Protein backbone atom coordinates (compact mmCIF):
# COMPACT_ATOMS: atom_id res chain seq x y z
CA UNK A 1 0.00 0.00 0.00
CA UNK A 2 1.46 3.33 -1.07
CA UNK A 3 1.22 6.52 0.95
CA UNK A 4 0.58 9.89 -0.65
CA UNK A 5 2.15 12.20 1.95
CA UNK A 6 5.88 12.84 2.08
CA UNK A 7 8.00 13.13 5.22
CA UNK A 8 11.25 15.08 5.27
CA UNK A 9 13.98 14.06 7.72
CA UNK A 10 15.84 16.51 9.93
CA UNK A 11 19.03 17.76 8.35
CA UNK A 12 22.31 16.45 9.70
CA UNK A 13 24.43 18.79 11.77
CA UNK A 14 28.17 18.77 12.52
CA UNK A 15 28.91 16.08 15.06
CA UNK A 16 25.85 14.01 14.09
CA UNK A 17 25.83 10.31 14.96
CA UNK A 18 25.48 8.20 11.82
CA UNK A 19 24.27 4.61 11.88
CA UNK A 20 26.17 2.45 9.35
CA UNK A 21 24.34 -0.58 7.99
CA UNK A 22 25.08 -3.29 5.41
CA UNK A 23 21.65 -4.25 4.01
CA UNK A 24 23.04 -6.01 0.94
CA UNK A 25 26.51 -7.56 0.48
CA UNK A 26 29.40 -7.56 2.97
CA UNK A 27 32.16 -5.00 2.58
CA UNK A 28 35.93 -5.19 2.71
CA UNK A 29 37.00 -4.47 6.30
CA UNK A 30 39.97 -2.25 5.39
CA UNK A 31 37.99 -0.19 2.89
CA UNK A 32 35.12 0.16 5.35
CA UNK A 33 37.54 1.32 8.06
CA UNK A 34 38.89 3.99 5.70
CA UNK A 35 35.34 5.21 5.05
CA UNK A 36 34.58 5.40 8.76
CA UNK A 37 37.79 7.36 9.32
CA UNK A 38 36.77 9.87 6.66
CA UNK A 39 33.44 10.40 8.40
CA UNK A 40 35.23 11.01 11.69
CA UNK A 41 37.61 13.44 10.00
CA UNK A 42 34.58 15.33 8.66
CA UNK A 43 33.23 15.69 12.18
CA UNK A 44 30.66 12.87 12.27
CA UNK A 45 30.39 10.06 14.79
CA UNK A 46 29.75 6.76 12.97
CA UNK A 47 28.12 3.87 14.83
CA UNK A 48 28.53 0.55 13.08
CA UNK A 49 25.54 -1.77 12.98
CA UNK A 50 25.65 -5.52 13.52
CA UNK A 51 25.08 -6.22 9.83
CA UNK A 52 28.45 -4.69 8.95
CA UNK A 53 30.32 -7.46 10.76
CA UNK A 54 28.38 -10.45 9.43
CA UNK A 55 28.40 -12.60 6.33
CA UNK A 56 26.04 -15.24 4.99
CA UNK A 57 27.16 -16.34 1.53
CA UNK A 58 26.89 -13.32 -0.76
CA UNK A 59 24.84 -11.46 1.87
CA UNK A 60 25.91 -9.39 4.84
CA UNK A 61 24.17 -11.64 7.31
CA UNK A 62 20.79 -13.41 7.39
CA UNK A 63 17.80 -11.48 6.07
CA UNK A 64 16.06 -11.01 9.40
CA UNK A 65 19.22 -9.74 11.08
CA UNK A 66 19.85 -7.21 8.31
CA UNK A 67 16.23 -6.05 8.55
CA UNK A 68 16.55 -5.84 12.34
CA UNK A 69 19.63 -3.64 11.92
CA UNK A 70 17.61 -1.22 9.77
CA UNK A 71 14.85 -1.15 12.38
CA UNK A 72 17.33 -0.60 15.23
CA UNK A 73 18.96 2.36 13.49
CA UNK A 74 15.65 4.06 12.73
CA UNK A 75 14.28 3.44 16.23
CA UNK A 76 17.40 4.54 18.16
CA UNK A 77 16.93 8.19 19.25
CA UNK A 78 20.71 8.63 19.42
CA UNK A 79 21.13 7.95 15.69
CA UNK A 80 20.71 11.08 13.56
CA UNK A 81 21.08 9.55 10.09
CA UNK A 82 21.73 6.24 8.36
CA UNK A 83 24.36 5.47 5.71
CA UNK A 84 24.72 2.21 3.83
CA UNK A 85 28.11 0.49 3.78
CA UNK A 86 27.83 -0.68 0.17
CA UNK A 87 25.44 -2.22 -2.34
CA UNK A 88 26.00 -5.54 -4.07
CA UNK A 89 22.94 -7.76 -3.73
CA UNK A 90 20.30 -8.56 -1.16
CA UNK A 91 18.01 -5.64 -0.36
CA UNK A 92 15.02 -7.03 -2.29
CA UNK A 93 15.00 -9.95 0.16
CA UNK A 94 14.23 -7.48 2.97
CA UNK A 95 11.21 -5.67 1.55
CA UNK A 96 8.58 -7.95 3.09
CA UNK A 97 10.40 -7.88 6.44
CA UNK A 98 10.53 -4.14 7.02
CA UNK A 99 8.31 -2.22 9.42
CA UNK A 100 7.39 0.80 7.30
CA UNK A 101 5.30 2.31 10.08
CA UNK A 102 8.35 2.34 12.35
CA UNK A 103 10.32 4.09 9.60
CA UNK A 104 7.50 6.57 9.02
CA UNK A 105 7.33 7.53 12.68
CA UNK A 106 11.14 7.80 13.07
CA UNK A 107 12.18 9.72 9.93
CA UNK A 108 15.92 10.10 9.39
CA UNK A 109 18.35 10.85 6.59
CA UNK A 110 18.91 7.57 4.71
CA UNK A 111 21.65 7.36 2.05
CA UNK A 112 22.79 4.77 -0.50
CA UNK A 113 22.62 3.73 -4.14
CA UNK A 114 22.95 0.73 -6.46
CA UNK A 115 21.24 -2.27 -4.78
CA UNK A 116 19.90 0.17 -2.16
CA UNK A 117 17.45 1.26 -4.89
CA UNK A 118 14.99 -1.38 -3.66
CA UNK A 119 14.98 0.26 -0.22
CA UNK A 120 14.61 3.75 -1.67
CA UNK A 121 11.54 2.63 -3.61
CA UNK A 122 9.90 0.62 -0.84
CA UNK A 123 10.60 3.12 1.94
CA UNK A 124 9.53 6.06 -0.19
CA UNK A 125 6.28 4.47 -1.34
CA UNK A 126 5.36 2.67 1.89
CA UNK A 127 6.39 5.27 4.48
CA UNK A 128 6.61 8.53 2.50
CA UNK A 129 10.13 9.25 3.76
CA UNK A 130 12.37 11.35 1.52
CA UNK A 131 15.61 9.38 1.00
CA UNK A 132 18.95 10.23 -0.61
CA UNK A 133 20.56 8.51 -3.59
CA UNK A 134 24.18 9.18 -2.71
CA UNK A 135 27.62 7.90 -1.72
CA UNK A 136 28.23 4.97 0.60
CA UNK A 137 30.79 4.33 3.31
CA UNK A 138 32.89 1.58 1.71
CA UNK A 139 32.07 2.09 -1.97
CA UNK A 140 32.93 5.80 -1.99
CA UNK A 141 34.18 7.16 1.33
CA UNK A 142 36.64 4.30 1.71
CA UNK A 143 38.48 5.46 -1.41
CA UNK A 144 39.78 8.85 -2.52
CA UNK A 145 36.41 10.54 -2.75
CA UNK A 146 36.35 13.62 -4.99
CA UNK A 147 35.34 16.96 -3.54
CA UNK A 148 32.42 17.04 -5.98
CA UNK A 149 30.96 13.90 -4.38
CA UNK A 150 31.50 14.98 -0.76
CA UNK A 151 30.24 18.50 -1.37
CA UNK A 152 27.12 17.20 -3.12
CA UNK A 153 26.45 14.79 -0.26
CA UNK A 154 26.95 17.36 2.50
CA UNK A 155 24.84 19.99 0.71
CA UNK A 156 22.00 17.50 0.30
CA UNK A 157 21.86 16.19 3.87
CA UNK A 158 23.11 19.18 5.94
CA UNK A 159 21.29 22.04 4.23
CA UNK A 160 17.70 23.17 4.68
CA UNK A 161 17.64 24.98 1.33
CA UNK A 162 16.85 23.53 -2.14
CA UNK A 163 19.88 22.12 -3.94
CA UNK A 164 19.10 24.31 -6.93
CA UNK A 165 20.65 23.71 -10.34
CA UNK A 166 22.78 20.58 -10.62
CA UNK A 167 25.73 20.17 -12.95
CA UNK A 168 28.38 17.61 -13.81
CA UNK A 169 31.86 17.79 -12.26
CA UNK A 170 33.99 20.55 -13.76
CA UNK A 171 36.49 17.99 -15.07
CA UNK A 172 33.87 16.22 -17.20
CA UNK A 173 31.70 16.99 -20.20
CA UNK A 174 28.27 18.50 -19.47
CA UNK A 175 25.21 16.25 -19.71
CA UNK A 176 23.40 16.08 -23.04
CA UNK A 177 19.74 16.11 -24.06
CA UNK A 178 18.35 13.09 -25.89
CA UNK A 179 14.90 14.67 -26.03
CA UNK A 180 13.92 18.31 -25.56
CA UNK A 181 11.23 19.75 -23.33
CA UNK A 182 10.38 21.07 -19.91
CA UNK A 183 8.98 19.09 -17.02
CA UNK A 184 8.44 19.24 -13.27
CA UNK A 185 8.01 16.23 -11.02
CA UNK A 186 9.13 14.34 -7.95
CA UNK A 187 12.55 12.67 -8.18
CA UNK A 188 12.46 8.87 -8.11
CA UNK A 189 14.40 5.93 -9.46
CA UNK A 190 17.87 4.48 -8.99
CA UNK A 191 19.55 1.44 -10.44
CA UNK A 192 17.95 0.28 -13.70
CA UNK A 193 18.23 -3.46 -13.07
CA UNK A 194 16.73 -3.13 -9.56
CA UNK A 195 13.80 -1.10 -10.88
CA UNK A 196 13.15 -3.72 -13.56
CA UNK A 197 13.42 -6.50 -10.96
CA UNK A 198 10.56 -5.04 -8.93
CA UNK A 199 8.10 -5.02 -11.85
CA UNK A 200 5.11 -7.23 -11.12
CA UNK A 201 5.72 -7.09 -7.36
CA UNK A 202 3.95 -4.99 -4.71
CA UNK A 203 7.09 -2.83 -4.64
CA UNK A 204 7.25 -1.81 -8.29
CA UNK A 205 8.10 1.82 -8.84
CA UNK A 206 5.28 4.23 -9.59
CA UNK A 207 6.74 6.51 -12.28
CA UNK A 208 3.60 8.54 -13.07
CA UNK A 209 4.49 12.22 -13.25
CA UNK A 210 7.96 11.60 -11.78
CA UNK A 211 11.40 12.76 -12.89
CA UNK A 212 12.72 9.23 -13.33
CA UNK A 213 16.45 8.93 -12.60
CA UNK A 214 18.16 5.80 -13.93
CA UNK A 215 21.73 4.62 -13.42
CA UNK A 216 23.63 1.45 -14.28
CA UNK A 217 27.11 -0.07 -14.26
CA UNK A 218 28.84 -2.77 -16.32
CA UNK A 219 25.80 -3.73 -18.37
CA UNK A 220 26.40 -4.34 -22.08
CA UNK A 221 24.34 -2.16 -24.45
CA UNK A 222 22.07 -5.07 -25.42
CA UNK A 223 21.22 -5.62 -21.76
CA UNK A 224 20.43 -1.94 -21.33
CA UNK A 225 18.20 -2.25 -24.39
CA UNK A 226 16.42 -5.24 -22.87
CA UNK A 227 15.75 -3.51 -19.56
CA UNK A 228 14.64 -0.22 -21.12
CA UNK A 229 12.40 -2.13 -23.51
CA UNK A 230 10.82 -3.92 -20.55
CA UNK A 231 10.13 -0.56 -18.90
CA UNK A 232 8.62 0.69 -22.15
CA UNK A 233 6.39 -2.38 -22.45
CA UNK A 234 5.32 -1.87 -18.83
CA UNK A 235 4.44 1.77 -19.59
CA UNK A 236 6.88 3.06 -16.99
CA UNK A 237 8.92 5.36 -19.22
CA UNK A 238 5.88 6.83 -20.97
CA UNK A 239 4.28 7.65 -17.60
CA UNK A 240 7.25 9.70 -16.38
CA UNK A 241 7.28 13.50 -16.66
CA UNK A 242 10.96 13.43 -17.57
CA UNK A 243 14.00 11.15 -17.45
CA UNK A 244 17.59 11.55 -16.28
CA UNK A 245 20.09 8.84 -17.26
CA UNK A 246 23.50 8.68 -15.67
CA UNK A 247 27.00 8.38 -17.10
CA UNK A 248 26.74 4.60 -17.48
CA UNK A 249 29.98 3.30 -15.95
CA UNK A 250 31.74 0.61 -17.98
CA UNK A 251 28.72 -0.25 -20.08
CA UNK A 252 30.38 0.03 -23.49
CA UNK A 253 33.26 -2.11 -22.19
CA UNK A 254 31.00 -4.87 -20.87
CA UNK A 255 30.60 -6.67 -24.21
CA UNK A 256 33.05 -6.90 -27.12
CA UNK A 257 30.35 -8.09 -29.53
CA UNK A 258 29.91 -5.53 -32.35
CA UNK A 259 26.61 -3.69 -32.12
CA UNK A 260 24.98 -0.57 -30.77
CA UNK A 261 26.82 1.67 -28.33
CA UNK A 262 25.25 2.69 -25.05
CA UNK A 263 24.52 6.13 -26.44
CA UNK A 264 22.79 4.64 -29.49
CA UNK A 265 20.64 2.41 -27.30
CA UNK A 266 19.64 5.36 -25.12
CA UNK A 267 18.86 7.50 -28.15
CA UNK A 268 16.65 4.80 -29.66
CA UNK A 269 14.85 3.74 -26.47
CA UNK A 270 14.59 7.13 -24.73
CA UNK A 271 15.13 9.78 -27.39
CA UNK A 272 11.72 9.26 -28.98
CA UNK A 273 9.75 9.84 -25.80
CA UNK A 274 7.57 12.98 -25.66
CA UNK A 275 9.26 14.14 -22.44
CA UNK A 276 12.65 15.76 -21.75
CA UNK A 277 15.47 13.23 -21.42
CA UNK A 278 18.83 14.24 -19.97
CA UNK A 279 21.75 11.84 -20.42
CA UNK A 280 25.31 11.49 -19.10
CA UNK A 281 24.58 13.06 -15.72
CA UNK A 282 26.94 11.90 -12.97
CA UNK A 283 24.99 10.32 -10.12
CA UNK A 284 25.65 6.59 -10.31
CA UNK A 285 28.61 4.21 -10.24
CA UNK A 286 31.26 6.84 -10.93
CA UNK A 287 33.58 8.27 -8.29
CA UNK A 288 32.10 11.70 -9.01
CA UNK A 289 28.41 11.58 -8.18
CA UNK A 290 25.67 14.00 -7.23
CA UNK A 291 23.41 13.19 -4.29
CA UNK A 292 19.75 13.21 -5.33
CA UNK A 293 16.87 13.57 -2.83
CA UNK A 294 14.19 11.09 -3.88
CA UNK A 295 10.69 12.32 -3.10
CA UNK A 296 11.55 15.99 -3.74
CA UNK A 297 10.39 18.23 -6.60
CA UNK A 298 12.75 19.01 -9.48
CA UNK A 299 12.60 20.50 -12.98
CA UNK A 300 14.12 19.62 -16.32
CA UNK A 301 14.36 22.34 -18.98
CA UNK A 302 16.29 21.68 -22.17
CA UNK A 303 15.86 25.26 -23.41
CA UNK A 304 17.55 26.56 -20.26
CA UNK A 305 19.91 23.55 -20.24
CA UNK A 306 19.05 22.96 -16.59
CA UNK A 307 18.32 20.21 -14.08
CA UNK A 308 17.14 21.92 -10.90
CA UNK A 309 16.02 20.64 -7.49
CA UNK A 310 13.41 23.20 -6.49
CA UNK A 311 12.31 21.98 -3.06
CA UNK A 312 14.03 21.55 0.28
CA UNK A 313 14.77 17.93 1.18
CA UNK A 314 15.26 18.27 4.94
CA UNK A 315 13.86 20.25 7.84
CA UNK A 316 15.64 21.95 10.76
From TrEMBL:
Q: Which InterPro entries match?
A: Carboxypeptidase_A_C_sf (IPR027461), Class_I_gatase-like (IPR029062), LdcA_N (IPR027478), Peptidase_S66_N (IPR040449), Peptidase_S66C (IPR040921), S66_fam (IPR003507)
| Presence of keyword Membrane | no
The Gene Ontology biological process annotation of the record reads: proteolysis
* Range of residues in the leader sequence: none
Q: Which domain of life is it from?
A: Bacteria
| All copies of domain LD-carboxypeptidase C-terminal, residue ranges | 184-300
Give start and end of each LD-carboxypeptidase N-terminal domain.
19-134
Q: Which GO terms describe its molecular function?
A: carboxypeptidase activity; serine-type peptidase activity
Kindly give the Gene3D superfamilies that the UniProt entry links to this protein. Class I glutamine amidotransferase-like (3.40.50.10740), LD-carboxypeptidase A C-terminal domain-like (3.50.30.60)
Q: Where is the active site?
A: 114 (nucleophile), 215 (charge relay system), 285 (charge relay system)
Which keywords appear in this protein's UniProt record, sorted alphabetically? Carboxypeptidase, Hydrolase, Protease, Serine protease
Give the UniProt family note: Belongs to the peptidase S66 family.
- The identity of this protein, by name, is Muramoyltetrapeptide carboxypeptidase
Source species: Propionispora vibrioides
Lineage, top ranks: Bacteria, Bacillati, Bacillota, Negativicutes, Selenomonadales
Amino acid sequence: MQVSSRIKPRRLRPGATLGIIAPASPGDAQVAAAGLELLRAKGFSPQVGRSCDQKAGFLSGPDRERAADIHAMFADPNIDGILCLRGGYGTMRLLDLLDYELIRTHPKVFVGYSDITALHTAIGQRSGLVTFHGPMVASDMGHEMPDYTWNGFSRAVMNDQPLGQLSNPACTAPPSWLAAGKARGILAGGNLSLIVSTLGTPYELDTAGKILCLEEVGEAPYRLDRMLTQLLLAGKLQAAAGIVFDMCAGCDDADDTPGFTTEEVLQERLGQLPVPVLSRFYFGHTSEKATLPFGIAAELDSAANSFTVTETATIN
